[in-house]
Amino acid sequence: MSKKAINQVKVLIGIFLLTMGLSGTKVFAADEQGKKSNVGVSAVIPDNQIDKEKTYFDLLMKPGQEQELEVNLSNSSDEDLTVEVTANSAFTNDNGVIDYSPVKLDPDPTLKYPFSTISETTKEVLVPAKSKAVAKIKINMPAESYTGVIAGGIHVTEKDKADKTEEGGGGVQIKNKFVYVVGVQLRTEESLEGLKGDLELDKKKIIPTQVNYRNYLGINLQNTQPVYIRDLEVDAKIYRGNSEEVLHQTKTQNMKMAPNSNFNFGVDWENKPFQGGNYKAVVTAKSIDYGEEWSWTEEFTIDADLAKKLNEKAVELDDDNTQLIIMIGIGLGVLLLIIIILIIVLNNRKQEKKRKARNARKKKSSSSKSGSSKSSSSRKSRK
Predict the structure, then answer these.
(1) CATH of 3-187 given 2.40.50.100, 3.30.565.10, 1.10.3720.10, 2.60.40.10
(2) Is the CATH code 2.60.40.10 the one for domain 199-317?
(3) How much is the pLDDT for 320?
(4) What is the mean pLDDT of residues 148-169?
(5) Would you say residue 79 has pLDDT above 90?
(6) Which of 5, 7, 84, 316 has a Cα-to-Cα distance from 58 of 20 to 30 A?
(7) Taken in order 116, 121, 123, 125, is the CA torsion positive or negative?
């Protein structure tokens, strides 16, 4: 795939993510020229819809019930289109956004019934030119009553179609693709009263990582309850060892979490290199919609070898010369001390030599005077 094609797909996915959510509005993806997609997607709302005003699926079902959902697909273009349809469990991505993409992700350990395992879809649907088609999704509810929400999404996207570019040498490109998600909420009890999201932090999952080749510290937060958290604030402060000075801090608001899901809250390392050693994380989280607050203080270690590997991959890394400056300072201090000691020693030796020379001169002078005195006495005696 060419870089141009990759960028086109990224633009569309970005537009989709900005507009996606459990929203009842129709969403059309635009191409890079701003044109709307020729495909329309809408849910066929069944009788057991809890809120008929919603245009995503919000269904009250019985334990063990089987039900077939329908999604209308329309194609206003002049050529047939094949769309791919998948039923995916809701999860929370590392941006703190509820996501329904068809990614290979292990379900959270607290998720008892992933939507992807209780639903089946027709993988591909042909939508004729200037016509409509229906995608069908079969739901098999668990046999036991379930308190809370089973959350998922019906992910609709155009099947990849590779075309040769006409402007020579361009190779094979992928056409712009639309992406659309119809949200699904399933429950066997209409009332969710008394259920609140609850967060846990696993200190074993505080690990250095990278986002777009930039250093971040990942702090795993887990919503252990079968309900959404729709307005989450997290403030994380990182300290080095026993220092009281904040090394790095990241505070983020307006995040959301899917039921029974987890994500890695990223603390920006501000383009600084990771350094092996002991650290401390002080984290507070607030669920505005439930009025709940959590706090944790956890010690963790960054492995020096892992830090080195990540630093080698990092881009736009600011070299942290603090340790080098300290080492140079220590070295210069030691060198200065050695020079001072040498000066003192040499000066002492010089003074010692001078003292010895003076003593020698005094001794010689004294000897000369003594000899002269003896000679004078001898002359007097001969007389």
Answers:
(1) 2.60.40.10
(2) yes
(3) 53
(4) 75
(5) yes
(6) 84
(7) negative
